[in-house]
Amino acid sequence: MLTSLLQEKVASMSNKNGASPQQAQRSGFGRDLDLRLVVALALAVGLALYFWTQSRYPSLGAKALSGVETPISGLAFDILIRTLPGSGLWERMWANTANWVFTNLKGMTFGVFFGASALTILSLIRRRSFNGRFANAAMGAAIGAPLGVCVNCAVPIALGFHTGRMRLETTLAAMIASPTLNVIVVTMSFALLPLNVALAKLAVSLCMVLVGIPLLCRFVLHREAEAAQAGEISAKLAGVQKTGLFGWLAGNLAPQEPQPGHYPPLQAIAWLMRTYARNLFFIALITVPLMLGAAVLGAIFVELVRPSALILVMPRSGDFAIIGAMLALAVVLSFAPAPIAFDVILTASLLGMGLQDHFAAVAVVALGSFSVYAFLVIWRAISARTALALWAMCVAAAVLAGAITVKTGGPFQAWERTRLIQTLANGPQIAWPEIASSPPPAPSTVAPVANRPLDFDLLDGTPVARVTLRPIPLAQASVGATDPVFTRVYGPDIGLDLHDEIVAPWLFVPFGLHGGIAAADFDDDGWVDLALRRSGLQGGIALYRNVGGRFERQPFDAGPPGEVPALTLAFVDLIGNSDPDLVLATDGRGVFIYENRGGRFDQAPAIKLDTPDTARTRAMAFADFDRDGRLDIALGNNALTTGDASNPNKAMPISANLILLNRSAGRFDRRTINQFTGQTLTLLASDINRDGRIDLLAGNDVAGTDAITEFFEGGTLMDRAGRDLGLPYPLSTTMSYDEGDWNNDLIPDYYGGQIGMASRLLDEVDQRKNIENLCALWGQDAGWSDAQRTACQTDAGRLASHKLNSGGGGLSNCTNADAIDQTICAAEALFWHLSKKRTPAPDVAAHKTCTRALARIPLVQNLCNVLLDIHLPKPPAAVIEDTMGAPLRNSNTLFTGQPDRTFVDLAEAQGVDLPGWTWDARFADLDQDGWQDLSIMTGYWSRLASGDSNVFYHNVAGQFELATLAFGLEDLSPSFSAVRFDYDRDGDIDMIRALSGPHVVVHRNDRPAGAALWVALRQSGGNTQAIGARVTICTNGARTILPGSCQTRPIRAGGGFASFDPVAAHFGLGAAREVSLIQVDWPDGASSTLAPKDLLQGEIVITR
To answer: Rounded to whole angstroms, what are the CA distances from 920 to 582, 639, 868, 895, 977?
Structure first.
């Protein structure tokens, strides 16, 4: 087409000079070609190449790789201004308007610049079209599809085409083809949407562009089409009523016909600059004001339309009701000025929230094909009839896509299920790598660290029987001042010899959460010991005794619970003899207590708690909730398919959280808590409203149902929303909560962790480099060969390329060439497919299909048992929000306590709001300068290529600073949980991470800023560790508790994600010379204030 146009231009110039076309060609193409056209084409090519290579295609490619993990806010990808739940209307409107403009700025700028370029080029060309309408529409599709801009950004380009007298079919086809037929957007739709939805979208998009637009121009818009072909558009715009500045400018800057003649290079460039500037100003004048208006209208759209509400009002039966709903949905969503690829990503998210496939087809077509901005510009530049006709066609196309999906839904689901079952039946017999497990070494001996009495004066309150001290060396730096504070240690080098393989099942949601670590001095020798979850390929846990700073694996026969993967574990004294017992939650076998018998744990006296085996307890917390003197247990359950992508509108009774009130002798009174069930990942027992009673804060993933349970005397309890106790709002995808006092004002603060990721889209080169860096790090730890590093890159790359298949995408998502990975992907797809289509009652037929299909993969087969659990309707999202409050999304929280018992979220102000995909997030004074820092575990197996790293925020006298690199804590491995204690007894706090990756990683503290004091408590009765107490210390002679010279810590057992630190309070002392006062607020409300003598650092135990 371009060649023919250039030849036409040559012919026209030759005719003007009195020569035939043949003579012109013989005289030399370069000599007679108008140089104005050459420089105009060069400008257009330069603009396109710059935009495609520097902005559009890298951005689209990154969105395609990120999929539904791409952060969105309102109708925007890029978040310039954030809003919090409870923000005022005008604040939300301003933020959504600004974010929309910021997201579309590059695309709109390109659209205006390229539209002016197109207008400039077209003014020099006589032949601008084919003769046939369908051919012109096809040309528009060929021009528009590579542009890769949203319909809003394509509008200025279309205006340039139209003003330059392109055929109306070409103009409209290019505008719609750009967002709908771009190759990356089409690829995204097939990767993220069910196959029949993606096919329906592609089919109706092609029909709109290649058939619908030519027919519209022939039968409805014939006058507009003829006017465009005759060149009346320029005359129309030139005749704009010249009233007001805008009218005068639009009328006087309308495009003009170029003067013929010979233009040398410099004159051609000068002409281009004048003409292009005029056209640019004209295009901008028409489109930019309307773009700002569209941004405001988009903000109004966000206020009026909530995705969760759309899902709830969509009917599930009745042909007329469904057709009417599809029509209404198409009308509403076609109004939205969505950015490029927003239609696919939002629709994939809506599918995950429970939107039915046929409504998803309507949504993806309506969102991506048209917008209010396109409507306004077309109305102004062409005609109201054109705008209305094009809008009606897009609405009809969206409804048609929904109808196609309805008709193909049943057959497609049956076909997809058959394909999945056949894939699993024909797949390879999977032999997972065997995890080498050598027998425990012969036990070593080490002299216990001696206790000695510590002198003190009781200043006030309940008498204390004794205080004992285990001395530790004064913490000193062992590295230079410019070296990282922490040194990375390969776990096997200090005896932590666990190993894991990088295999496909870790992407399968229940197997991918690799937390599970607990620390306690279970043999009472002064050296803190460890328990860690083993590889899911082995199951069970490993116990390690700390022998003088090295760990030795201990014999431990957990019985049948040790044959399945461990979910979480803890050390607390539930028997009442002051020795920490082991509590183990398993995948499918329930929760068990193993009694500590002289530092050993055996299965014989194990107590199985009264919980459903399939509840999948992933969070535990311990406290004397009913204040009867015995330690109780809180269990946070996370049963599959509870409010998740497979059944977002269903709740499973077995996923209800439980309180087990301790009635002594291994007997517990079970009670169900929390009004709304969710996927609980963290439980924190803490006195949130400071009324002297322990509350329980439950953090739930996915469901937006974070809740607090208040406890009263005698075990009476009440479920409350966080706002009832002063917390501003719940989180949306909660993974972790922890208590601390980051500003040393002696008022408890709370850090909440969820998926809080800054907008950071990476292209394939960046992602490949991240994989290489990750494998290089693992290889450096373990001394791998080049071949081992290369194998690691292959394995990690396969995992990174696999997207979670919980949306029911089926085999269309299983594109990995590796047969084993494809089999696991198919297993995941089948499980979620059956879960999504199951009956509320126990679905025996689905369970039978599942167990048969997964028979060759016993590692994941037990997941099928969930299909035998009951599902109940889940309350509508609007009801949950009205009860619990609107959740905060994509941001962590730093709820800072106020004197009036309320909280203010200072996460954004302190720069700790977006660390990434957060798991275990803990307050801990890691440099021991007297101010609690924040250490955060981040990442996920499907994000191996994303460069996610652990995050460390250093608290510098009340101001957090990102210091991950400076402290030596950067690590690209997916990290889920860690424990923090002084494993080598050198006076500082170290960090050991749970097994997540090939091996255990230790971060040894080599440069503390001060000494440390650990305070543990002991008392008689059933809560021997005084969990729920609070310890406050003051230094340098202070005898009055005041902010500045004092610090406070809880004695807690819970919080974070799948991690349990030793039950003690850790204080960094910085430059303090002595500890002058200790106050203990005991769990029963009593208080003891004492003045220790000659105390600076060490481990003390206060016994009453």
So the answer is: 20, 20, 32, 17, 5
